[in-house]
Amino acid sequence: MLNLYDYIFYFFAIVILGSSFVVVFSRNIVHSAFALLFTFFGVAGFYVLLSADFLAITQLLVYVGGILVLLLFGVMLTNNIVNVEIKSGTMQTLPASLIAALIAGLLCGIFYVSNWYLVPTTPELLNNTTAVAIGYAFITTWILPFEVASVVLLVAMIGAVIIARREKAPEVE
Amino acid sequence: MAEWILSQFPDSILGYVIIGALPLLFILPYALVTIYLEMKMAAHMQDRVAYMRTGWHGTLQPFADILKLLQKEDIIPTAADKFLFILAPYLVFIGTYATFAVLPFSSQYAGSELYLGIYYVIAVSSITVVGILMSGWASNNKWSLFGALRAAAQIVSYEIPTALALISVVMVAGTMNLQVLSQQQSGGIFDWYIFGGPFPIVKKLLLIPIMFVLFLIQLTASMAEVNRTPFDIPEAESELVQGYNTEYSGMKFAIFYLAEYANLFVVSAITVVVFFGGWASPFGNYLNSGGWELFWFVLKGMFFVSINIWLRWTLPRLRVDQLMYVSWKVLTPFALVCMILVGLIVVSF
């Protein structure tokens, strides 16, 4: 018997799968980019179903608000966006399918081998936020990886600014 | 109210659908009132009278406009990308409508009491950006594409000072839940966060100047996020015809406008909840129950909507470089300094 939760789960699953098919198989690069919106949205929906509220909203903020908008900018600023030719023929079929099958097998293997820990869903657990626990974990147990990640991001940002500005340097001299 | 609605429809998704549709009861009348307000305010500021013939002082004009838009032919350009062209206005509206889920119209209102309310509002509004980009590209029109790219660049830039200003208040309040934020400020006008919040006098006095700066940052940045003059380069009619919605007609055009006006209320409501007490009455416990909460929330929201309209018809449009200058070199550094000061105050008191 399917309940409301199952219906919502399958709705998001169909959204994710359908839109990812468009992303991969569409001949129009802009359509692929826009289909990505629904994929990201569906994954955020999964996070909500798992009551991972912080992760769900972060998914929307980072992937839709950041990466997707950047991607669309990139696609739209390229020349000839309307009739750009994407090569979608197949080549190297054998190695490609081998690697794909290998990765799929690896993922399935991990899925079956893993010792999944099922958290009992109590109303308190479902209604509480995960943000507080994640915040405490970041500044206590995982403080070093957290700081390293932020330093790496800062370096990347400064690097991006320097690369973007480099062209103007000779004019000053 | 949420429990009551859900108990009317046990074992059915209908209750959730009704709760989800509740904000429409507000948005549709609100849009009619605001269209009228905008036209009248604009006219009187320019020494005109605006519409006077349909009903008393033209009060029926918004209804006439809606009827006209409903009857208009829905034109889709031949060279447009048909699917994306149809989808885009709905996407823009969805991004705005989703934020209504967490707006606390009153303490009893059926909306979500999401713990991460402010974070959710910032994240969900990015769907609007994608919708605008989609409409601009699908129209297959140079002006539309320019308008869409300008709009996206502008909204993405101005999200940063907005988020920094809101984070500073969240640090003071210790919560991102919009409902709890309103409750914290329900002790009268001097408990509002613009006046330092419900704290002992020393902390309050230290916070007041910072809160005023943060409020100005939030007001300016939110005006840019709804693409209105002085930040309306995405729709700059003298350069771009009408920007990203140039090619739209009929109800699709109306949906763009509905989304813009709804978004105007959302940013005003966020300002109200974060700095001006949300649904809390300015007189403490006096006039602070039941329907009055809704009254105060809508009144304060409409006050900031009218400030937006007032500024729109007062100030000239900024150039693109000035626009980016304001965001990156003025608002963002000020917001960062305010955030550090707020952090020091929160830690030391």
What does this structure look like?
- The complex is a heterodimer of chains A (173) and B (349).
- In chain A, 75% of the residues lie in helices and 0% in strands.
- By secondary structure, chain A is mostly helical.
- Chain B has 349 residues and is mainly α.
- Chain B has one domain.
- In chain B, 67% of the residues lie in helices and 0% in strands.
- Chain B has helices at 2-8, 14-45, 61-71, 82-99, 117-124, 126-138, 142-173, 178-184, 201-225, 237-240, 250-275, 291-312, 320-348.
- In chain B, helix 4 runs parallel beside helix 11 (250-275) and helix 7 packs parallel to helix 13.
- The two termini of chain B are 38 Å apart.
- Chain A binds chain B through residues 4, 30-31, 34, 37, 41, 53-54, 57-58, 60-61, 64-66, 68-69, 72-73, 76-77, 81-82, 128-129, 131, and chain B through 13, 81, 84, 114-116, 119-120, 122-124, 126-127, 129-130, 133-134, 137, 140, 145, 149, 152-153, 156, 159, 176.
SSE inventory with pairings:
The complex is a heterodimer of chains A (173) and B (349).
Chain A (H helix, E strand, L loop, with lengths): L3 H22 L3 H21 L3 H25 L15 H21 L9 H5 L3 H9 L3 H23 L3 H4 L1
Helix pairs in contact in A: 1-2, 2-3
Chain B lengths: L1 H7 L5 H32 L15 H11 L10 H18 L17 H8 L1 H13 L3 H32 L4 H7 L16 H25 L11 H4 L9 H26 L15 H22 L7 H29 L1
Helix pairs in contact in B: 1-2, 2-12, 3-11, 4-6, 4-11, 6-7, 7-9, 7-13, 9-11, 9-13, 11-12
